[in-house]
Amino acid sequence: MDYANITYEAADRIAVITLNRPDKLNALNHDTLVELRDAITIAGESDAVDVVVITGAGEKAFVAGADIRELSAQDAVSGQRFALSGQDVFNRIELCPKPVIAAVNGFALGGGCELALSCHIRLASENAKFGQPEVNLGVIPGYGGTQRLARVIGPGRAAEMILTGDMVDANEASRIGLVNRVVPRGEVLAAAKEMAAKIVSKGQPAVRLSLQALRCVPQMGLREGLATEAALFGISCGTEDFKEGTAAFLEKRAPAFTGK
Ligand code: COA
């Protein structure tokens, strides 16, 4: 794929999207967001891809936020459009039918933290730092930060991060549930690929239906969510991979999933 601000590589059923403006700490300008939107759409639709990993180029930053030069030119009307267009890209990531893993390799600030929050799983390098520093610029998070951060770490902790603009380091991010796991510096992409490969080895209809059920959590009450889970469970029981997975267990052999 021919992009100027990101790279897209697919191999072994894993697509890796790398934000690639390391001299600007991978800050999200308009062109980068357009490319990211395109890449996540392609990964979501590609028959050759089961899992997506998003990371940043270089060792310093995952993404240091929205591009502050572009941000500084917004007014009350264009600012709303600015936020909505970023939200649209991150909604597409959250709604990707395939698991998306953030491999956070450094600063994840503002839009970078919001990008990580739109992914389904977050792994962090030990040098990663998370923050919503928008108040330092006199603006509020606009790419989903006020909504997703509160859902992931709770409203009190989200309020502290958003209202003080303070960063949290990788270990603190792990402690408060902002990331799943911290790995040594330089190893986060490999760890994300390893996790992705494990997911690739499973029955993909079950993976995608699980994701669909998990996605209901912030939208539904418990009863409605359980009813949805039961309906999706039923669908998974109708797949060839379900027949294969259960037969393989009973025959004491490894399953040979086909993704059907
Ligand atoms: N938008 C545009 N450019 C950015 C950027 C952003 N969000 N974050 C970093 N950059 C650019 C810097 O302007 C600098 O470019 P230059 O070399 O052309 O001057 C380059 O990336 C390196 O950043 P620099 O600030 O020199 O690195 P640092 O190690 O001193 O500081 C940070 C790192 C992350 C603490 C600092 O860059 C920062 O605070 N960035 C903004 C974070 C932010 O507020 N994000 C939310 C935006 S809504």
What does the main sheet amount to?
6 strands, mixed
CATH architecture of the largest domain: Alpha-Beta Complex
Please report the number of helical segments: 11
Provide the spatial order of strands within the biggest beta sheet: 1-2-3-5-7-10
Can you list the ligands bound to this structure? coenzyme A
Domain count, please report it. Answer: 2
**Rg (CA only):** 19 Å
Write the element-wise H/E pattern from the N-terminal end onward: EEHEEHHEEHEEHHEHEHHHH
Please bin the fraction of helical residues.
Answer: 40-55%
Model description:
This protein has helices at residues 30-45, 68-71, 76-94, 111-118, 145-153, 155-164, 170-175, 188-200, 204-215, 222-237, 240-250, and strands at 6-11, 14-19, 51-56, 61-63, 100-104, 107-109, 121-125, 129-131, 168-169, 181-183. The chain starts with 5 loop residues before the first strand and ends in a 10-residue tail after the last helix. Helix 9 runs antiparallel to helix 10 (222-237). The longest helix has 19 residues, at 76-94. The strands form two sheets. Strands 1-2-3-5-7-10 form a six-stranded mixed sheet, with helices on both faces. It folds into two domains: 6-200, 2-enoyl-CoA Hydratase, Chain A, domain 1 (Alpha-Beta Complex), CATH 3.90.226; 204-250, Orthogonal Bundle (Lyase 2-enoyl-coa Hydratase, Chain  A, domain 2). With 260 residues, it is an alpha/beta fold. The structure holds coenzyme A. The site of coenzyme A has 17 residues, from helix 2 and strand 6.
